[in-house]
Design brief:
heterodimer; A: alpha/beta; Urease, subunit C, domain 1; eight-stranded mixed β-sheet; 13 helices; B: Rossmann fold; Rossmann fold; four-stranded parallel β-sheet; 9 strands
């Protein structure tokens, strides 16, 4: 990597309160100097003109499609999508084909992405084939680099197995990630249960079905005194339950995804399957509670919930279409717009970069001389239009094509590699 | 108003009250035609209609086919089980294949809610919904309201109870939308496991007591109960359903006013309705069937006028 001089960067770093606008010189992938720096002849320059710079973002749950679902996404395409979205690290969900439920599965992902601009941190499966029956060899997987355990998009139904997996990971301070949805009460619902589902004749997913499992998992986390992360919460009730659990000192963290922060079930009127997502789009009151949870710290993480699906799986009757929305490339813009004045850039950076790494025990990069440069440059004020041709993901299942959004990722640096969008 | 405000009949939801009135007035004329010695008119000569049934149907399919033939349209029929379609050709491919043969109107029944909206974004032909899963069945609601109107006149302020499985019923949903647009009051009655939690938000009150429901209403529209098709048991037995929510002569005799009994068919005799009620003078079930043809003729006629190359 040639020398890179980043000019006029407003450094967003929770360690330093207050704003610093500085130049940074990166040589051989490391931060050589921070301050007022003049350029040499051969130095590449990114002039941020006062736009923001923080450590690279980290997604706590991405469907990477590899191995086995490469028609939707592969490691190359997901890495590019992550890079365009400002992420330099992504934790991959294990529900691929085959499922990542052994150390060879974990090693495959690590070896394929080692030293890349975007690093993949595998989440191992809690149960074999994510079937929710028998727990996997989590010690093995941990040893070779699995950062957490989860059955990905399969909520763990069996309370006994959930309890045993929380217990099993305690020796290494592991964390179990679960998406909350009780299948017994959710049935084959596909959208939020409310006025809209009733009027559309679509089977509903009651908020209660999520909250039932959130409450169960909180009890289990309390009983086992182990670490639980509830991924992609979507209801006001879940925020309330988690807030109460945190007050009691139970080790529970949680995340929310951009779709639930910017959309409600009102958009379903047209049966557009791009809005068929899990968790489902809920009501305005839920959205408000989620935003409040973010600003008061109950919700630790904003996750992409990136779920690529090729057109053949999506361009169908609503009932037959698969769940999911791609979102790595739009996560920042969507939340920047949805949260507006509610949250400072520093708050966004904590939810996108620091907290996810802290929860998974992944080393947090530093912005200091001598450190490896792991950055994202972004402009909260820049407007842009999301175009289909710009999409790096293999899949195009997003309702945001053609949408003009405020807030844009300008470029990323990591592992001596860089990507510059050319938009500043 | 002499034209519908919409190109398709996808749901009652998308109709204006004036559209419904226009359909009723047009149906009045066709009903008169149906009672002539020669029941055929040339209105839709040279119009080709495809009846696409991705889900089983006998009476709706026959009713549409008859309506089309009475209007002198050319008719092609397609039926397939939903599973074979899902596994093989997509809906879009199937329909585009048929449309390539120059079809003007599509009448479709499909198990997926919203299938017609999906289709309308991809094809030019006018679309009539003959039932989409648990979403809507607009022509059934129109013929139901039309039959009520025949008996009760203006439906404003009239009271209608829909009995039975509201959770899985497109007929219930379309009826609620239609009756609300016409100013009627609607309640639903059945076991709570078969009533959507938020049904009150779309214009239907809930009553669990059959006696109270019957005492309140002018019309009881009784839906078919199918235990065998439910993947989960929403009630334990047909016997208990019949005893708790079925309509029988004894219950009707307790009501101190005449009420009309309707049913979209086919009836499970002895389950949701006893035979003495189904065959009673209060029952207008066969009139519904007759009106179905007139209503469908009206809808086909009005939509044919809105064909894309006409507009």
């Amino acid at each position: 990597m040639p020398d890179l001089l980043i000019r006029n960067a407003r450094i967003i770093d929770p360690k330093h309160k207050g704003t610093r606008t500085k130049d940074l010189l990166i040589q051989n992938g490391r931060i050589q100097k921070i301050g007022k720096i003049s350029a040499n002849k051969n130095t590449k320059i990114w002039d941020l003109k006062g736009a923001c710079l923080s450590i690279g973002w980290f997604d706590i749950g991405t469907q990477v499609g590899d191995p086995g679902l490469e028609q939707n996404e592969d490691l190359d395409s997901v890495s590019k999508a992550a890079m365009a979205g400002g992420f330099t690290g992504i934790a991959s969900y294990p529900n691929t084909k085959p499922v990542v439920h052994s150390k060879s599965g974990v090693l495959y992902l690590i070896n394929q992405t080692k030293n890349n601009l975007v690093e993949v941190f595998p989440i191992g499966a809690v149960s074999h084939n994510c079937e929710g029956k028998d727990i996997t060899e989590m010690y093995d997987m941990r040893e070779v680099g699995a950062v957490a355990f989860s059955d990905g998009s399969h909520p763990i139904q069996n309370s006994g197995m959930m309890m045993r997996s929380l217990l099993y990971v305690k020796p290494f301070n592991g964390v179990i990630i679960n998406q909350a949805l009780d299948y017994n009460t959710a049935g084959d619902g596909m959208v939020h249960e409310g006025t809209m589902s009733t009027s559309l004749g679509l089977k509903g997913l009651p908020s209660m079905s999520e909250e039932l499992m959130v409450q169960r998992d909180i009890y289990l986390a309390e009983y086992t005194d182990s670490k639980l992360h509830i991924a992609n919460i979507s209801t006001a009730g879940s925020v309330r339950l988690i807030r109460a659990a945190r007050k009691k000192g139970i080790q529970v963290t949680c995340s929310v995804n951009p779709a639930n922060l910017c959309l409600t079930d009102e958009v379903l009127e047209d049966f557009d399957s791009n809005y068929k997502v899990m968790p489902p789009l809920r009501e305005l009151s839920d959205q408000k509670a989620l935003k409040k949870g973010l600003s008061d710290g109950v919700i630790d993480v904003i996750s992409s919930n990136h779920s690529p699906q090729v057109a053949e799986n999506k361009n169908l009757e609503f009932s037959y279409a698969d769940f999911g929305m791609i979102s790595l490339e739009t996560t920042y813009s969507i939340i920047n717009e949805a949260l507006g004045e509610d949250i400072e850039p520093i708050g966004i950076v904590e939810k996108l970069a620091h907290n996810p790494r802290r929860i998974l025990g992944v080393e947090i990069p530093k912005i200091a001389v001598g450190e490896l440069a792991n950055f994202v440059a972004f402009d909260p004020e820049a407007e842009w239009t999301f175009k289909e041709n710009d999409i790096f993901s293999k899949s195009k299942n997003t309702p945001f094509i053609g949408k003009t959004m405020k807030g844009r990722v300008l470029g990323v640096v990591n592992n001596k590699k860089q990507y510059w969008s050319g938009w500043a | 108003m002499s034209q519908l405000s919409t190109r398709h009949l996808i749901g009652i939801k998308f109709l204006k009250p004036e559209d419904i009135q226009l359909i009723f007035e047009t149906a009045d004329k066709f009903k008169e035609v149906l009672n002539r010695p020669i029941k055929k008119v040339p209105s839709l000569r040279d119009v080709t209609i495809a009846n696409l049934f991705f889900e089983n149907s006998t009476r709706t399919r026959i009713s549409f086919e008859l309506a089309e033939k009475r209007l002198s349209a050319d008719v092609v029929n397609f039926s397939a089980s939903s599973s074979s379609v899902k596994k093989g050709e997509t809906l879009l491919d199937t329909v585009n294949n048929i449309l390539a043969m120059k079809v003007d109107l599509v009448v479709m029944r499909h198990p997926a809610p919203g299938a017609h909206i999906f289709l309308s974004k991809h094809i030019d032909a006018n679309i009539i919904n003959a039932g989409d899963g648990t979403h809507e069945h607009p022509t059934q609601a129109l013929l139901d309201a039309y039959s009520m109107r025949e008996k009760l006149g203006d439906l404003r302020g009239k009271k209608i109870v829909i009995f039975g499985d509201i959770l899985h019923s497109r007929v219930a949903l379309s009826n609620i939308f239609c009756l609300n647009k016409l100013g009627a009051k609607v309640k639903v009655c059945g076991p709570p496991t078969l009533i959507p939690k938020y049904i009150h938000r779309i214009g239907a009150e809930v009553e669990y007591d059959v006696n109270k429901a019957l005492a309140w209403c002018d019309v009881a529209n009784v839906l078919r109960i199918q235990l065998e098709r439910q993947d989960i048991k929403y009630f334990p037995s047909l016997r208990e359903y019949s005893r708790s929510f079925g309509i029988n002569k004894k219950l009707l005799d307790r009501v101190d006013k005449p009420i009309y009994i309707m049913h979209p068919g086919p009836i499970n005799r002895g389950v949701e309705l006893t035979s003495d009620v189904a065959d009673s003078k209060q029952s207008i079930i066969l009139q519904q069937v007759e009106n179905g043809v007139a209503i469908r003729m009206a809808v086909l006629y009005l939509l044919a006028e809105k064909r894309s190359h006409n507009s």
